[in-house]
Amino acid sequence: MRTVLFDSRANFVNNFSAMYKCFEEDSSYGINPVIVYHDKTTFRENSSINNKEILSNYWDKGKSKYSIEELRKMEKDYFDINLWNMVASDRFIHNKDQDYIISQISFFIYAWEEIILKYTPKFVVTETVTGIWNYILFALCQKHNICFLGFSRTKITNRYYYTRDIYGHFPEMYNKYKQLQHRDLTGNELNTVLDYIKGYKNKPAIPVYMKTTSLPPSIKRSFNPYRVGVNIIKDLMQRFISKHHDYTLSYRLKAQYFEWQRLYRVNYTKLFKVFKQPGYNQKYILYPVHYQPEATVEIWASYYSNQLETIIKLAKSIPIDHMLYVKEHRAVLGSKPITFYKNLKKMPNVRLISPSADITELIKNAKAIAILTGTVGLEAIFWNKPVIIFGQVFFDFYPFLIKVDHIENLPNLIKKAIEQRIDENDERKMKFLYSYITSGYSGDIYSAEITKSEAEILCKELVQEIESSN
């Protein structure tokens, strides 16, 4: 029996609990499951789950377990990147004070170490590294020679895959692409790609996470007396009754304050007409603003994570007859300070594009796409557009990707991108797309609700991944 430890943050309580039951009921899987719930408030009591841990139970001992000198030694010995860099990527902790952050780091190292030593798992299943809690878990997996399996979305194909590092690399897709270098695509394989491209262009796929992403706040919702009253009551319960220690669960009043702040900023952008509609008769480079703070920016593109500075560098590097179109992410409109937009509006060759503008049309009419990381770069491939990338992405082996190695080279790289021509049926592109659309798993691991049959699919896919890692 192989012991598999599931890191079950609040978002995945239902899925992992259902998978646990499948593994426990069917011994033929050969899996001994252990679930780690982050907090009692996120755990729905179920008597059938025996192998479980509550992470917050380790808080009292863990929060002051290690001195800052001891943490520095661990950082040196076990961590690939500095802990402060990871803290910067964590949307739940990056703006806290130093004492709070150090106590959380100490707590997570102590808690995960104790749990790992208690159960000695061979595999750990969690989401791809997105915060300090599972970055520490990843580092301890390396220390104890445990196979780390972080699941991540494949973006526009609405599938998922398991990565084994902190950068979200996609080993199955990469290996499949490398194998295709030694042969031609078969007729059926080529038709699979052509059919997918045709279907995508007729109706561009919307990533699952964009279908459920939050829209800008409204006055009616933000100032609803009933909703505000409920938030006050729940906030008091969080602080004085449940006393949870899951730092990813925001206090309700704090969340309410940020919602009001976002509302003010959204209305400011409307009142002063910050955003404009695109002019497709212009030559332009498209830069989609990335969600922050987020590991995909702070870790995968850590040296370019100050997006204001990166945009300014881009604007200084484009040809004189081009504009830089900067499109805000509709899910985070209002999350940036107003000064962000004011600074960009001062630049004569930068146009701030409305979040409601059609991203597909923007991609189709752009001369090139510049991204830190993200889905837009992947979408651009379907439209044969050159992609300039600053960070790391799971598709960084795409043959026409232009990687920014040194910022001083940016003007030349942009010129190269603009002059690049990608044939619609280029063999390398087709092999890349075949590897992409046929890799990963089809189960819905991100679903909020899950049936037994859906859980069984996820279990079989996980076992398949485990078998492939041996």
Describe this structure in words.
It is a single chain. This protein has helices spanning 13-25, 59-62, 68-78, 83-89, 98-119, 132-143, 171-180, 187-202, 208-211, 219-222, 225-242, 252-271, 295-298, 307-317, 338-345, 359-365, 375-382, 410-419, 427-437, 452-469, and strands at 2-8, 31-37, 52-54, 123-127, 147-153, 160-163, 284-288, 323-327, 350-353, 368-371, 387-389, 401-403. It is α/β, with parallel strands linked by helices and 470 residues long. It folds into 3 domains: 2-170 and 442-469; 211-271, no CATH class; 276-437, Rossmann fold (3-Layer(aba) Sandwich). The longest helix has 22 residues, at 98-119.
Percent range of helical residues: 40-55%
Our measurement of the CA-to-CA distance between the termini, rounded to an integer number of angstroms, reads: 14 Å
- The backbone outline, from C-alpha atoms, is globular
Strand order of the largest sheet: 3-2-1-4-5-6
Could you tell me the radius of gyration in angstroms?
23 Å
Number of strands: 12
Q: Could you state the oligomeric state of the chains shown?
A: single chain
Largest sheet: 6 strands, mixed
Strand content: 5-15%
Overall mean confidence score, pLDDT: 89
- Please identify the structural class as seen in this structure: alpha/beta
Model regions low in confidence, pLDDT < 50 over at least 5 residues: none
What is the count of structural domains?
A: 3
Count of helix runs: 20
